[in-house]
């Protein structure tokens, strides 16, 4: 979108409100223009009647001298000429001129012709340019200048002697179009239209908002009950479609879990059968190898099942002494003190799923043992997180491979093939479990050599 | 007069497991009766003098857990569950309702035989009556729940124990105030779950102390008796 359009509101409500407001503004503008034109017409009539009145006065008193006291307040200026006056930019208003002619000629038969025209003041000869009414303004050229920006009505009468009598006056439009009532009117329209509109749009956009929140917070397949279809029909249908889609996704996910469970069970049964039959193999060496292969297959199966079912773990969180859990795992994996757990000053407890967390710890400590030979383990807590740090003395991992290690089935080096153990899911599982506990797993190389794994869970 | 060939009831709906396992066990010198479902297992239990029941948890119809409950209720032979699920929840549930032990499929037949032997030894000797009674032992705010085999600290937090540590603590808590020497403790902790128990009792005690003692250098609960062994030295209540 173009940069200039950034100010255009992004929300549905904002856009509709803006467009409506602009529309009302435009209509009000046209409205006031039309009214202004009407007002101007009336102003011309008023100006004309003023000129007619003054001109009639002049006709009554005969000759008109510019020095007369009346001229000191020249709301109407007059001039005589022998020839008709043609002023550029002045247009005649025939209808009005005829009416004026009718009135004037009925009283003053000497009037032979009447012309009435309207045009810009600045085009008039100096003698006919109207002046501001106040005396002090006469010495202020700026005020005069501003005064002469408007339009004037010019009445030209052809008298019996063939001379012309011209009179002008400013058409007073200022103050004719009252600003306040117009503003109040516009404001009332805004209130009367925009507020009900806002309510209607909100009624429409609120369910949309709700749908949006639900999708961004809980995702598509949440456990939450279906949304209640509300709002206008289109929105209602959208929500219904969403509910239906969510139901299908949920059904698919359930199916996935059921299927994984079935695969797990169905594969384990033949594996168990195989494991029993292995005992009938005579060659002890061969037997051991077969047993190891079966165990590896079971481990891969378990890893995949754990990963797939992590979100729907059946285990309930329990307040657990994590220091003791770490010691237990260290004890299970390296009974010969190759995993040295530093005795922590305080016990770190957290609400966790102990079986899952034990799995994560087993994976991390198992890696440390496998690649580092031995490891130092520390448990620390700060009230928000419990951090379990596992520092091994192995070769570490190239910096650019550190993050990639969390990818499923990743291994640090090509040389670390399956024979070195593991499914390549260990770190993926550890991280997924830590994240399910509001924490994470971080891997970093130690400056003194070896790898440091930090598992954090929320306390 | 002990029977020469212990009689095992093998209950599993999967013929592919049941059949080779039965032959393997027979080779190991056991008499094996097979059952493909809970109903025929009940018949076998009525008809024969069974010494150990090997029971698959997941079976169509009446499942293994329900049958375990039945066997425990009538005071039948020890039950070893065969489970495809390694989730601990299953283990706890199984042990709570009266199973003696469990193995996770696929299991090593040799390990299974080791566990059968442990179960047989327990029934031939004086069976510990308090085995799965679901007792809760309390001391100084701590709780040791025997049904779940779990220890909870005074804050109510689960304190994970290895099975060796658990049995050591249970043995000492049950005999609080008595001095127990290393041999006695070794005997008492050779429990029903097969595993590496040959580790020195001292080592186990020091690990246990790290988990439960406020100050493991100056133990308050498990006191060392010079020349004797260990004594659990706080008051214990059973409920």
Keywords:
heterodimer; A: 459 residues; alpha+beta; 5-stranded antiparallel beta sheet; 5-stranded mixed beta sheet; 12 strands; rod-shaped; B: 239 residues; alpha/beta; 5-stranded parallel beta sheet; 8 helices; 13 strands; 38% helix; 21% strand
Please give a structural write-up.
The complex is a heterodimer of chains A (459) and B (239). Chain A is an alpha+beta fold. Chain A has helices at 12-61, 94-107, 141-147, 179-218, 233-278, 284-309, 322-333, 354-372, 426-436; strands at residues 76-81, 91-92, 113-120, 151-158, 164-170, 318-321, 339-341, 349-352, 375-381, 385-392, 440-445, 451-458. In chain A, the strands form three sheets. Chain A has a five-stranded antiparallel β-sheet with strand order 1-5-4-3-2. Chain A has a five-stranded mixed β-sheet with strand order 7-9-10-12-11, with helices on one face. In chain A, a hairpin with a 5-residue loop joins strand 4 (151-158) and strand 5 (164-170). In chain A, helix 7 crosses helix 8 (354-372). Chain A is rod-shaped. In chain B, strands 2-1-3-4-5 form a five-stranded parallel β-sheet, sandwiched between helices. A five-stranded antiparallel β-sheet of chain B has the order 9-8-7-6-13, with helices on one face. Chain B has a three-stranded antiparallel β-sheet with strand order 10-12-11. Chain B has helices at 15-27, 38-47, 64-73, 88-96, 109-124, 163-174, 182-189, 201-212; strands at residues 7-11, 31-35, 52-56, 79-83, 101-104, 136-139, 142-145, 150-152, 158-159, 179-180, 222-225, 229-232, 237-238. With 239 residues, chain B is α/β, with parallel strands linked by helices. Chain B is elongated and about 55 Å long. The model of chain B is unreliable at 126-132 and 192-198 (pLDDT under 50). The chains are: A alpha+beta (459), B alpha/beta (239).
């Amino acid at each position: 979108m173009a940069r200039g359009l950034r100010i255009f509101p992004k929300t549905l409500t904002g856009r509709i409100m803006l467009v409506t407001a602009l529309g009302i503004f435009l209509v009000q503008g046209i409205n006031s223009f039309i009214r202004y034109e009407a007002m101007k017409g009336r102003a011309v009539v008023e100006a004309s009647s003023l000129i007619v009145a003054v001109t009639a006065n002049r006709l009554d008193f005969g000759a008109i001298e510019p020095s007369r006291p009346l001229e000191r307040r020249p709301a109407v200026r007059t001039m005589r000429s022998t020839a008709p006056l043609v002023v550029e930019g002045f247009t005649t208003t025939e209808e009005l001129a005829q009416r004026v002619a009718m009135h004037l000629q009925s009283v003053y038969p000497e009037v032979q012709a009447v012309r009435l025209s309207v045009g810009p003041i600045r085009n008039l000869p100096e003698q006919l340019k109207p002046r501001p009414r106040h005396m002090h303004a006469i010495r202020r050229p700026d005020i005069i200048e501003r005064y002469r920006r408007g339009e004037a009505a010019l009445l030209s009468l052809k008298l019996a002697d063939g001379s012309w009598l011209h009179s002008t006056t400013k058409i007073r439009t200022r103050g004719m179009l009252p600003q306040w009532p117009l503003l109040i009117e516009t404001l009332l329209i805004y209130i009367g239209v925009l507020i009900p509109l806002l309510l209607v749009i909100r009624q429409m956009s609120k369910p949309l908002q709700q749908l949006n929140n639900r999708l961004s917070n809980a995702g598509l397949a949440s456990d939450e009950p279906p949304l209640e279809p509300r709002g206008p029909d289109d929105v209602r249908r959208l929500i219904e479609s969403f509910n239906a889609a969510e139901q299908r996704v949920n059904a698919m996910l359930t199916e996935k879990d059921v299927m994984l469970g079935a695969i797990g069970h169905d594969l384990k049964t033949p594996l168990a059968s195989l494991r029993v039959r292995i005992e009938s193999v005579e060659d002890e060496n061969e037997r051991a190898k077969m047993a190891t292969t079966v165990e590896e297959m079971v481990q891969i199966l378990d890893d995949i099942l754990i990963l797939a079912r992590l979100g729907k773990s059946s285990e309930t969180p329990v307040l657990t002494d994590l220091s003791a859990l770490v010691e237990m795992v260290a004890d299970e994996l390296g009974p010969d003190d190759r995993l040295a757990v530093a005795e922590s000053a305080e016990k770190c407890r957290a609400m966790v799923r102990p079986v899952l967390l034990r799995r994560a710890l087993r994976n991390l400590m198992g890696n440390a043992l496998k690649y580092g030979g031995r490891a130092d383990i520390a448990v620390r807590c700060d009230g928000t997180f419990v951090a379990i740090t596992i520092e091994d003395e192995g070769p570490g991992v190239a910096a650019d491979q550190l993050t990639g290690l969390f990818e499923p089935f990743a291994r640090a080096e090509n040389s670390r093939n399956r024979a070195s153990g593991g499914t390549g899911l260990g770190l993926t599982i550890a991280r997924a479990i830590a994240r399910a506990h509001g924490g994470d797993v971080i891997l970093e190389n130690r400056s003194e050599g070896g790898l440091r794994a930090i598992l954090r869970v929320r306390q | 007069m002990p029977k020469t060939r212990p009689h095992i009831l093998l209950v599993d709906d999967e013929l592919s497991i049941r059949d080779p396992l039965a032959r393997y066990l027979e080779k190991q010198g056991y008499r094996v009766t097979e059952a493909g479902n809970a109903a025929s297992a009940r018949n076998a239990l009525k008809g024969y003098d069974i010494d150990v029941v090997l029971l698959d948890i997941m079976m169509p119809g009446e499942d293994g857990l329900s049958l375990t409950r039945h066997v425990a209720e009538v005071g039948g032979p020890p039950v070893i569950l065969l489970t495809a699920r390694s989730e601990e929840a299953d283990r706890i549930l199984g042990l709570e309702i009266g199973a003696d032990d469990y193995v996770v499929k696929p299991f090593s037949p040799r390990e299974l035989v080791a566990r059968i032997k442990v179960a047989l030894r327990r029934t031939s000797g004086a069976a510990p009556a308090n085995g799965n009674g679901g007792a809760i032992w309390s001391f100084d705010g701590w709780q040791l729940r025997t049904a779940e085999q779990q220890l909870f600290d005074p804050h109510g937090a689960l304190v994970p124990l290895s099975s060796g540590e658990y049995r050591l603590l249970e043995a000492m808590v049950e005999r609080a105030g008595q001095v127990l020497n290393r041999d006695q403790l070794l005997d008492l902790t050779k429990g029903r779950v097969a595993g590496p128990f040959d580790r020195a009792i001292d080592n186990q005690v020091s690990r246990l102390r790290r988990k439960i003692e406020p100050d493991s250098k100056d133990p308050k609960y498990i006191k060392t008796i010079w020349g004797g062994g260990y004594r659990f030295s706080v008051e214990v209540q059973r409920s």
